[in-house]
Amino acid sequence: MPGGAVRAGQGKNRAKTVVALIALVLVSALCAGKGAAAQEKIQAQQGAPNPPKINAGSWVLEDAGTGLYLAGKNPDKRMAIASTTKIMVALIALERGVDLDKEVTISDQAERFVGSVYSNVGLISGERLSVRELLVASLVPSGTDADYALAEYLGGGGGKAGVENFVDEMNQKAKSMGLKNTHFDNPAGLDSPEHYSSARDMAEIARAAMKYPVFRDIVDTEQATISTQNREIQVYTTNNLLYTYPPAIGIKTGTSPEAGPCLVAAAKKGDESYIAVLLDASSDEYRFTAAQKLFDFGFADYEREALVRKGQVYEKVGLPYRRDESVGLSAARDVAGLAGPGLEVERRETTKEAPPAAQAGEELGTVEVLVDGKSVGSSPLVTQKSYEEASLWQKIRYWTSGAVNSVSGWISGLSSS
Asked: Catalytic annotation on 197?
């Protein structure tokens, strides 16, 4: 009897131990689940799971075609941006469609930046240059004197008022682009508490500017000659990537005491193109090395591919008056998009009601492709084969079968009540 009691007690103790272990496992699983969810959230915020380690206050890597965010650090933090500001000046000039051959006279205000800031090309009051040459002088060697001359002209007049008018336009443009972390206080990026942007916003400005062939040609220039009415000036790019990294195609550097070394860069290889933005990099030369690391990461880990393929069926629609028959809807064309680590691809199909009859290739819907929630394109969905209008017999059978089903349902309902 005592032995039986001991065995019973041991059994109870073992049972308690088992229950405790099970509870511990469940709690651990729940905690692990919470940890995994948190990790997934962090990865979603940071983009790719394993981007390069970049020593900069803020940076991003984006797909140049769609603006798809791939990786970054503090992408929306408001930062000083120095002369990368001049990208917005060029964007507005080109968007306006200004006459690139129009001559602009250099003012005393523009000349005062010669010698007072690092970035200038030595323009003298009274000299005349075309708008195109001012863009070259502003974007290639980062001439602040040329940039102010351009801002005065675009602002509708010389002097301070013209510049202020143009800066207002810069801010209106930023607002219209939906840039929530950008504000300009001057056209050149001179340090000011009211002059800032973010890495993500700067990438968007650069993407918009790169749509213009003139801008692309200028920012991909290693050296150029600009001319006034009585002399020629040789200018050289401040973007060392153009000398050292073959896929590089621009865009603009910037440096100031408050901003530190900055770079907005673009690179293209095959059908892939990326934009990298680095703000407050650890050193002048490091910003170029870091940008190359980001581009190499993009080219190695991501690939543009057909996320919807022409001829593949993505949806079906039922045929009128034929309950068990349908026609497949296939994509009319490929839809290409970026695929790679951290990117979620989604396809959304929409269809309309099938007409009584249709030929093969008739459009009855659309398939849209989204990567990380951003639309990258769509394709019509077309009938894979033709079909004829339902015969009278098919229509009668459709109606009668529907009536029979209704009656059966009614009788079933009476029986159950």
From this structure: no
